[in-house]
Amino acid sequence: MPVNVLFSARPALWSIYEPLLTKGLTEAGLDFRLSTECEPDQVDYVVYAPNGGLLDFIPFTRLKAVLSLWAGVEKIAGNETLTVPLARMVDHGLTQGMTEWVVGHVLRYHLGMDRHITVQDGIWAPDPPPLATGRQVCILGLGELGEAAARALAALNFDVTGWSRTAKDIPGITCLHGPDGLGTALSQAEIVVLLLPDTPATENILNVETLAMLPKGACIINPGRGPLIDDDALLAALNSGQVGHATLDVFRVEPLAADHPYWAHPNVTVTPHIASETRPETAAQVICENIRRGEEGKPFLHLVDRSLGY
Ligand code: NDP
Question: Ligand 1 centre from 179 Cα, in Å?
Fold first, then answer.
């Protein structure tokens, strides 16, 4: 009997992924059937993205795993109808894209690029930018994406501190962890990058108290998830000058409403959830590898710990 793989994602992605998954599953030597529609009790694997609309996994009686195309799994991790392994996306194309986006936005702040990009006033006032050495950047989240961004910034000589749930040892990065480490991580951060998952433990991690721990005028870059930030607290901190500028890629409600105060705020840059995305060529290989592993009885890669939500 063929391995039945159901593709449940935005319909426009099917024509992109169908040939890539077909190639990968063929190369894996599998007898398979890949489709966007299948009787639920026939499905072995679901290739999943939240905008595929699939919510109830109870009828999927022979399901072996759900394989997410997204790195962030907050929309499915708490789904109680899902009782089989859930794997998230770890894709080096996605990681490279995020590293480039984070480094670009850190450099914007570090070099004060806006001054010359937005003001061409005819005044010749040389004020060369500083070196990265000694510029304190703090990355909240040292997972696949956070660690890669931290390493890239450290390679440019930024003074990088990272913060995670568990202890880490990454050469060239000051690693802090747990609730006790957060205050220390934030207290010297001139630029803060959020690359945490959206879980009950990380919601509003930047709030009135933690924003007050930052040095005055610190800049925030959030490509993680909207709920990581208490929006009212951030707006108040921007208005008081406690936070100098924020670049926000993700929001509690997306698309961000046209009348949301972030759009109009002079010290906020909104980007429309484009920091990085799963790259089909590399991501399809990850999906196929996990299906191959499942069929060979091997442990799946990139499993989500459902109790932690990431
Ligand atoms: P990982 O799961 O690899 O890393 C998550 C990191 O967050 C880990 O270092 C983890 O700590 C840390 N963490 C989790 N919970 C806590 C906590 N309570 N306290 C402190 N640290 C915590 O995720 P990725 O790096 O792959 O992705 C991070 C997020 O980036 C995704 O969840 C998603 O929301 C977002 N994303 C955004 C995109 C965009 O375009 N804007 C694109 C892709 C992803 P530990 O290492 O100890 O487990």
Answer: 16
